[in-house]
Structures are given as structure tokens and as C-alpha cells.
Design brief:
Strand order of the largest sheet: 1-2-14-13-7-8
Number of domains: 1
CATH superfamily: PPM-type phosphatase domain
CATH architecture: 4-Layer Sandwich
Helix content: 25-40%
Strand content: 25-35%
Distance between the termini: 41 Å
CATH class: Alpha Beta
Largest sheet: 6 strands, antiparallel
Number of strands: 14
Order of helices and strands: EEEEHHEEEEHEEEEEHHHEH
Shape: globular
CATH topology: Phosphatase 2c, domain 1
Length: about 325
């Protein structure tokens, strides 16, 4: 959705941090879009005694940025404060975490609906959400929409979330059961995602619950046991990245760049610049989260990079 500019806005927003044995960097760029509708969350150390836990998420807004911005500020609170998430004594169990994340999504969606109705339906925006909650023992991938998260383990793509597209058979069945249709791979010929937060124009079918609507706010939550020896890094990104780079391609790209620099902001900026060069016309946001066993800077790789830069400079000079 949205119109395009005559030339892309290439200024980037960056952040980085570390803690709980993790390092992260992020980059976001407006690109060719008229408005920047992406948002993000990066929190190391969660409330209620979960100091060793962390949460990261990317939100890809559409038809406006309001829902994405609200979620980046409040979704984590809705997850960690609901009763389904909290354990009876001590850290929550795996099932409590998964249930609490789901409840948090449904709660914030209903909360935003109430806010929108008080404004007489002024906000029609929506947002995808992809995130990870990382505990000392587990990584929980969270996805609602067509942004994507990926885990690189032992130099390979070990896991990635599944995009929620209207053409997916299970998504299409729900849409049709709610009286809708899938045309040109869009909900009612308009919306390109089948799950999202917000988008309340698609959530008003009487007699259907929140997860049975044309567009569902229900996330898929995947639990993966951490491997201290093999886990290397996680990538969270909106579809402005994935539209032009595949899972293996981006995993290989990040791994090769980490052998040249340990500046995670720089690596994320290189991802965004590469995707712009490859033709992405969307907003672009990416978070890179590195585990202790992430690739380390290699003198050999740094030397190869320097030699390549020198060669390219000489070719440019020869051509001038």
C-alpha cells in the first residue's frame, strides 16, 4: 500500500545494544515509500523478575503507521502482564509463554479497536509483527503477517517463520468461512496479508470470534530449545527485505559480513542498502541478534575484503 517518492529517502535509523549474552543491531530506512510505517522493539531484560529474558520485534505497518507505533510501545506489556503468561511460581513454563504471547496479541488488538472506535473509526491502519522472546533455555519465534524471522544455527538456516498470505489454504479457508474471498492473492482483492494487528475494517463479521475474522490477529508461536554450541544469529525483517533476498541468501550474506566486522549496525545498514540496490520499493527494517557463537572477525576475510576494495578502486580509476 502507499504511493512512491521520486527518489528514495536513504537516511537510516540505527540502534545497538548487548546483554544476557546477546548483541544486537538494527537499521531501518523509509526508502521509496511516501511514509515510514515500520517500527521496532528491542528490550534486554524483561519485567517481573525475568532479567535474563529479552524481546525483539519488527512491525511493518500499512495504511498508516499508528498501529505499528502503538504495538512497538505496548505489545510487550500486554504479553508479560496477562495471567496466561505468568508462572505460578518462578519463570513461566513453555506453554505459559506461548499462551501468554497469544493472549497478549488478542488483548492489544481489542484494546486498539476500542481506541479506534472512540475516535469514530479514524484509524484504519494495520501492522504485521515478527519477533523473538529469548529465555536462557528457549527461543520463541512469534509471527503475525508476512514479516519473517530466521535462525542461523551451525552456519545454516535452521528455522524460519511462515508468511501468513491469503493464498495459504488454511488462511483462505478462514477468509471464505468469514464471507470473504481471495482475489489476486489478496483479502477481498485488497489486503496482501491474512493476519495482522489492526485492520479493523476486516474484523467486523458478526458471529465470528477474533481469530475467525477475514484478518486474524492471532500469532503463530514456535518454541526452539537453545543450543549454546550451534546457535549463531537471528534475523528479524519486514517484507521490504525478504521481497528481494531469500532465506539462504540473507543468512550467507550476514555470516560473511560478520567475518569482516563486528559492528552489527553496519551489517544491518549493508543489508538495507543491498536490498535497495536489488530493487526493494518498500520501507525496510531489520534486526540482527547475535548469540555468543556468532561468526567472528577473520583476518583472512578482512584481507580478502581489502584486496577486493583495492581492485575495485583501481578499475574505477582506469575507467575514468
Amino acid at each position: 500500500m502507499g504511493a512512491f517518492l521520486d527518489k528514495p529517502k536513504m537516511e537510516k535509523h540505527n540502534a545497538q545494544g548487548q546483554g544476557n549474552g546477546l548483541r544486537y543491531g538494527l537499521s531501518s530506512m523509509q526508502g521509496w515509500r511516501v511514509e515510514m510505517e515500520d517500527a521496532h522493539t528491542a528490550v534486554i531484560g524483561l519485567p517481573n523478575g525475568l532479567d535474563g529474558w529479552s524481546f525483539f520485534a519488527v512491525y511493518d505497518g500499512h495504511a498508516g503507521s499508528q498501529v505499528a507505533k502503538y504495538c512497538c510501545e505496548h505489545l510487550l506489556d500486554h504479553i508479560t502482564s496477562n495471567q496466561d503468561f505468568k508462572g505460578p511460581d518462578g519463570p513461566p513454563s513453555v506453554e505459559s509463554v506461548k499462551s501468554g504471547i497469544r493472549t497478549g496479541f488478542l488483548q492489544i488488538d481489542e484494546h486498539m479497536r476500542v481506541i479506534s472506535e472512540k475516535k469514530h473509526g479514524a484509524d484504519r491502519s494495520g501492522s504485521t509483527a515478527v519477533g523473538v522472546m529469548i529465555s536462557p533455555q528457549h527461543t520463541y519465534f512469534i509471527n503475525c503477517g508476512d514479516s519473517r524471522g530466521l535462525l542461523c544455527r551451525n552456519r545454516k538456516v535452521h528455522f524460519f517463520t511462515q508468511d501468513h498470505k491469503p493464498s495459504n489454504p488454511l488462511e483462505k479457508e478462514r477468509i471464505q468461512n468469514a464471507g470473504g474471498s481471495v482475489m489476486i492473492q489478496r483479502v477481498n482483492g485488497s489486503l496482501a496479508v491474512s493476519r495482522a494487528l489492526g485492520d479493523f475494517d476486516y474484523k467486523c463479521v458478526h458471529g465470528k470470534g477474533p481469530t475467525e475474522q477475514l484478518v486474524s490477529p492471532e500469532p503463530e508461536v514456535y518454541e526452539i530449545e537453545r543450543s549454546e554450541e550451534d546457535d549463531q544469529f537471528i534475523i528479524l525483517a519486514c517484507d521490504g527485505i525478504w521481497d528481494v533476498m531469500g532465506n539462504e541468501e540473507l543468512c550467507d550474506f550476514v555470516r560473511s559480513r560478520l567475518e569482516v566486522t563486528d559492528d552489527l549496525e553496519k551489517v544491518c545498514n549493508e543489508i538495507v542498502d543491498t536490498c535497495l540496490y536489488k530493487g526493494s520499493r518498500d520501507n525496510m527494517s531489520v534486526i540482527l541478534i547475535c548469540f555468543p557463537n556468532a561468526p567472528k572477525v577473520s583476518p583472512e576475510a578482512v584481507k580478502r575484503e581489502a584486496e577486493l576494495d583495492k581492485y575495485l578502486e583501481s578499475r574505477v580509476e582506469d575507467g575514468v
